[in-house]
Amino acid sequence: MNEQWSSKVGFILASAGAAIGLGALWRFPYLTGMNGGGAFFLIFIFFTLFIGMPLLISEFIIGRGSKREAVSAYEKLQATGLWKWIGRFGVVGCFLLLTFYSVIGGWILTYVYLALTGSILHPSGNYDALFGAVVGSPVISITGLVVFIGLNVMVLSLGIKKGIEQVNKFLMPLLFVFLLIIIVRSLTLEGAMEGVRFFLNPDFYSITTDGILEALGQSFFSLAVGFSCMVTYSSYLGNEQSLPRSAGYIVILNLVVSLLAGLAVFPAVFAFNLEPDSGPNLLFVILPTVFEQLPFGALFLSMFLLLFFFATITSSFSLLEIMISAFTQNKAYKRINVAIICGLLVIVAGIPAALSNNLLSEVILFERNVFDLTDFLVSNVMLPLGCLFIALFIGFKVKKDLLIEQYKLESGRLGETAEWWYLLMQTIVPMVILIVFIFGLM
Fold it and tell me: What does the sequence similarity comment in the record state about its family (predicted)?
């Protein structure tokens, strides 16, 4: 008997933790800032509900319907052909994603340390130079990578109930508490309403084709779909839980966190006449500039960075678990041994990304350094391909009766939407994903 989640709430919080990471709290604000604010947010909501959510339900059905982790789930449901490689593709994608995701996690850990020791905020501080010093140091970058992965290994070696579930039950509520405190402080700043208007008042003239495509890609990224992480998580799930209802809760939590992230960031940015379209540097450069000018700024910045760290590490659990579960779900190997080996492999593979802004800064492939190239490969190529493979697998390869049965299980009247979900997976979802993939490459 495979280990299972101890409760419905535990599964939902763990899945929400997997989804609510850098995508919701870092990537979403800076993409929104670069694409005109409110219009991007509305398009993102639309794609999340009608493309991302059906894909999330699909991964849940594959996992619980097969009772297998990602590598063997597809093989059990459709043993012939290349379809069984979708899970393996997801494992490779998660591995590559972790190699640069963990580097960012290490940067955040470094900033948390600097904030807690009072070493960040200084009047008229040069935060560009500080960020450059952090990412430009091989020792800091590799140490951050090792510590971040080490924390993952410690939690995942404890298993599903005692590790992932317990940590998420503690960190996810704390994440919301910290986020709400930051929002209250941000909204009480003079001039904050300009930021609220930017974020919530849609200006569709400011949105571009690139912005629409980025909104769709963000809906994939923020729900952790495409690499079968949710297949693995749902394989630990019993039959007493409604899959579409669980997916709905996770989507709502994700959208709420995205809304709260925008309300935390943009009012503060506009209150101090800073630029909302500063891109990926928003977390490491713009926000310290904001907090340095606030009473108790060091305290609020520490809370904000801890918030990002909680979100980052709960998402990374799912990325590493998909690799660990491939060797432990059938009790073939001890979990702690597999967790350590997988962690070491990620650290070794992540070193080139950690050195991309220092010792390996002159190593350029396709006009990108190792970090940026891995990010592009994962986000613009592998992620939409993974979503497309899953959509085609659900829409055309798995027996419809099995899918509908899993969809309707314990779903009550919500089960009546099963046919609409199946129609979306056969038509709209794969077509839209294909468009995103083609334009993403262009």
Answer: Belongs to the sodium:neurotransmitter symporter (SNF) (TC 2.A.22) family.
